[in-house]
Amino acid sequence: MEDRYYFAYGSNMNLEQMKYRCPAAEVVENVRLEDYRLAFRGKAPGNGVATVLPEKGSCVEGVLWKITEACEKSLDFYEGFPSFYGKESIQVKNQDGVEKEVFVYMMNAPHKDVPARPSKFYLDGILEGYKDNQIPTDSVMKAVKRTRQEVKKEKNRYTR
Question: Any coiled-coil ranges, and where (predicted)?
């Protein structure tokens, strides 16, 4: 099997969690996905999970992993592929501006259309992953704040 590269932007940036899920996975480098934003979505309030949504001018910082076929099977199971998350081929850029085609898990509809706040446990795992990889956490907190506003807006829409 040829080398397979995976872009992680949420809980799979957490080195401890990835060691457990995919012991053979190797961190390659930090990369960014341009024209997307980090968002929290899902089926149940308070149980939102990370996804990326298209948004011109935004970017999502993350980790590029080199994975094996066994790793990918484990990730497919963890991500609820193909029903909850789908896989997309995308271009990421490293710090030097070099682009690489990799794959990413993106949440499927209708789940991606439902803003949902992440649990404290899940959010803490993501923040730890950002710190593990020396990526500033402000984009995560901005995504949480935006999700809170979206959830509030949704509630107001239905309680009028």
Answer: none
